[in-house]
# Entry
Amino acid sequence: MNPDLEKLILLQNIDLQILQISKALSQIPAEKERLEAEFNSSIAEYNELRLDLEKLEKQQKELEAKLKELDKQHEKFKKDLMKVKNEREYSTCLREIDTAKKGIQQTETELLELGDKIDKLHAEVEKRRPEIEERRRKLEDQLRQLDEEYKQNKQQIDNLKTERELLISNISKDVFSRYERIARLRSGQGLAEVVDASCSACRMTIRAQVLATIKRGEEIVSCEICSRILYYKAAVEKGAVAE
Ligand SMILES: [Zn+2]
# Structure
């Protein structure tokens, strides 16, 4: 068998593998994004509960500060009461004490109600947390796996490219550029196997005389329709045995 043809078959095998792995590789970032988006939407409700809880806890802090301030005022008015000089000041001070007291009572009631709401919401968040964490762990595992796959694919491509360079250096320059030209035009496939006396890529039936030449495997013959270089498997195997 023509030694260049034999190497072209190996080359095409490598090129198709590179293509296939590159395609898988290029899909990994989108797959990672998809998994992350899926996770985020699955925990949206949980995140909302957590935000609600944060809001209520902030309100609680504000009310507590307000209560402290009212207590302070209350104490101050009580002291003022000792220092009043006349009836008018006395009744004003009493009114202020009363207002502060009412404010304190109201704030305490609000704090109690808020505390109940916070407890309920907190319990709900805690109930859901384990499942969310499990999902997060699963997502991280999947992402790690995809990163690993990406790395492996890249390594495989590098190895194939090294193998390719070595192979190319042993193919006649004109045969190789012919292969490259066709491969570029034909989605990376510069060669086509002959099956049932037709080009397996474009299905064109091959004339008997050309077929005989291809079967001998000594010349580089292109398909008349798709230009791919044709080979016959039996010729390849015979070549392999003869080696
Ligand atoms: Zn063809």
